[in-house]
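Discrete fold record:
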Amino acid sequence: MLIVAAAYQAAVQYLGECYLPLESHNAADEQTGALGDIEITLVSDDKVITSYEIKTRRVTLVDIDLAWQKINATGKQVDNYIFITTEVIEESIREYASRMYDHSGGIEIVVLDCISFVRHFLHLFHRWRSQFLEAYQQLVLAEPDSAVSQPLKEAFLALRQAAESEKEF
């Protein structure tokens, strides 16, 4: 979730889009009124145009159907509903999500894996990689230990320090 937020934070002036304040990781979307884990708006508007749902498991047909139900229940008209998973994506899931476009009246529902999302973002905005890393570091360090463990924070900082020291040589 923090990777997506950092990507938008680093590119806000180029995209004209930003994320709404992040809700508690432990709160259900129904409790917060959010469509997903991260909601993206235009800088000049607070209408949600893209919603990200982050999964640390495989995305299922039920997940996609629940997202569609959630969109219908809130009455919010988003342009994109994007699942990002840390797991392998089955082709049948990708196909089912893409077929939802016609049924949803033009809402794109897509399933991406986390590494491909970051790889695509860093390729697209390669000139702003350092801004992305800085934004990600700030978000990671600001999270309580319940969301991002201390060993993970230390590992990220060690990797970043190693990468930056290689640039100096």
